[in-house]
Design brief:
With about 160 residues, the protein is mostly helical. It contains 5 helices and 2 strands. The protein has a two-stranded antiparallel ribbon with strand order 1-2.
Amino acid sequence: MKKVVKLVEYGRSLARVKEEPLEERRPVRAVDPEVPERPRRRKFSAEYKLRILREAERAKESGQLGALLRREGLYTSNLTTWRRQFERGALAGLAPKKRGKKAKPVDARDERIREFERETERLRKRLAQAETIIEVQKKVSALLGTSSPGAGDETS
């Protein structure tokens, strides 16, 4: 009968825990091979960051910090960044930041300028339409041989 030796990591050394028969081993669950469509960025709350920082400070023995990071799925760079944020401004510094371009504050003058530009464009379109209508009326009048009121003043 084959036996499996289970080893547990303590710091940098491995320790033998117990031997168990091969038949008593639990079946390993198959990992889902499907990859998610798009990876999602993890967002950590300020409370979570603070809790992890406290646990990291309490980790005094060799290997405890590494075990904490593995358990939580974090990197040492996370701790470094969070420590700097904490030093800058406690809980407010640990709050997640919104990514991307920052919205500019809207200036009342800029809004007024945009409003005038929209109005000017609207009036230009109406003027072009009115000029087109006048041109068509002139052509229809010339085809029918009728003169429009006030047209006699121009031909004299």
